[in-house]
Write a structure and sequence with these properties.
The structure holds two protein chains of two kinds.
Chain A (H helix, E strand, L loop, with lengths): L8 H4 L8 H16 L5 E2 L13 H10 L5 E6 L6 H13 L4 E2 L8 E5 L12 E5 L13 H9 L4 H14 L10 E3 L3 E3 L9 H4 L5 E6 L4 E5 L5 E3 L32 E5 L5 E5 L2 H13 L1
Parallel strand pairs in A: 2-3, 2-4, 4-5, 5-8
Antiparallel strand pairs in A: 1-9, 6-7, 6-10, 8-9, 11-12
Helix pairs in contact in A: 2-3
Chain B lengths: L3 E12 L25 E12 L3 E6 L5 H8 L7 E8 L2 E4 L5 H10 L1 E4 L3 H4 L6 H11 L5 H14 L16 H13 L5 E5 L7 H18 L2 E6 L2 H7 L2 E6 L2 E7 H6 L4 H10 L1
Parallel strand pairs in B: 3-8, 3-9, 6-7, 7-8
Antiparallel strand pairs in B: 1-2, 1-4, 4-5, 9-10
The chains are: A alpha/beta, B alpha/beta.
Amino acid sequence: MNSNYELPLEDAGYSFGFLDEYAKKEVRRCILKAIAIPGYQTPYASREMPMGRGFGTGGLQITLSLIGVQDTLKVIDQGSDDSVNAVNLRQFVQLTCPGVDVTEKTEEASLLQSRHRIPEKPLTEAQILILQVPYPDALVVVEASEARRKIMHAEADYSRLLVKLYEDIVHFDEITISHRYPTRINGHYVIDPSPIPRWDVPKLHQSKALVLLGAGREKKIYAVPPYTLAEPLVFDDIAFRVEDFRDATGVRHACRCCGSTVSFLDEFSNDQGMVAYQCSDSAYCEEQQQTGSAA
Amino acid sequence: MSRKILEVRGLSRIHGKGCPLCTQHTGPEFDTNICPFCGSVVAAHDINFDLYRGEILGIIGESGSGKSSTVKMLYFDDAPTSGQAIFFDGAEQHDLFSLNAAQQRSMRNKRFGMVYQNPHLGLNFQISAGGNIAERLLMSDLKHYAEIRRRAGELLSRTEVSLARMDQNPKTFSGGMQQRVQIAKALATRPPLLFLDEVTTGLDLSVQAAILDLILEIQNELDTAMIVVTHDLGVIRLLAGRTLVMKHGRVIESGLTDQILEDPQHAYTQRLVASAL
């Protein structure tokens, strides 16, 4: 985007946050309903945004409905603040919400919009995490009919999802779901927690921050309210496991930049075919490096 | 405690808008189940019977006689136009058609079993044979993987499906084996009531005999009550203690199977028995 370009707010007639006040109010009303029924997919009138469906319009509409001039926004894409999706969404919010601060530091943000990751740093009660969701319904992999899925959700009938896990264990000796791990919220509804890795699923459990999930294309908003049960779907005798990043000898890989052995790592191959690991959360990694160099 | 498990009274199903003359101008004496005035189909009318624990009741009749419709209504695949069915589940009694949709689904998943003629209706061909049984067990809230494997293995060996094939997809199985997996799936929750809808149709004679033996063994072992729908007198003779003969949506004759086969009273039953013998 041309950095000199400024949206002529007066001429364009956009209200603060691009969406008109009625639209924002409607989204906020849906958010309240989603919080009141943890995990329930609340339908809402997803607006046309000046970007394609699937580029985070669901998360963006939630962000724009909640944001005020006193807020500080952090936008993350796959853990990074600098990737194309994050940069564009951040710029869009800056353009349409004059006066809003943006940050790359997790602890400074009051609103965090994220695609595919939850920050490594624990969130606080003062923060709201907004996750962009491509497919909101965890049952879509086992049932094509939405009408039937609604009944299954209402009756908390997730046996067919468990059959999928059963088949995984039978054929591969372990559950092979790497992301979008079905997670039961407050003992009833099972959600698709957006494509966050398994590593991030335990962070939803009893989270201090409110977690809102928005699917713009599918027109659904759902929530994991603060201090709510979020349990990954498992069998009684097979525990849920997160990625362990161990090599063949059982040693855990460390981040090549900050040396962290307690964060979620991305795997890279260089031109020589050597595999290296690096923190997925770039802000966390940078902070670790600064703390390391300061020490 | 009474051994009665099911009491069906006045069960009727009319497809179409229906009119006051539908039931008066259809039936065996009119040789049709289509109402001449409104064109509605009287699939079943005024079906009454009792079923007792461990008993096998046969329903026999030609195609379109209403035998499968009766079972479909009891298994909640179809809703009756009128009538009542009381299910006696231990100390509890359930008026089946007064239950709400969720209660009906729960009843169907946990207390009833169904084996269809077409294995595609009863089995999920996207998953393994063991997975099919696991689905029923998971529906009844068993969430222990090792226990599910043990129970699925037990059921498959009981229905003579090799354990080596437990993790294979049933679409690679023969018709008889698919039917045995279906029976294992239907029995997974140890239901007190099992419906069998033309289970041996389309199978060769030796496989038919094996399936019928299996059904009898299961009845003896588990004391399961069964309703067997068939158009095959041989199946009725081998399995059912009592039989209902249906034609054009009506029960035209009922009684002990031996009695019906040896001394049929209704002209249609007489023809049926004579043609078979």
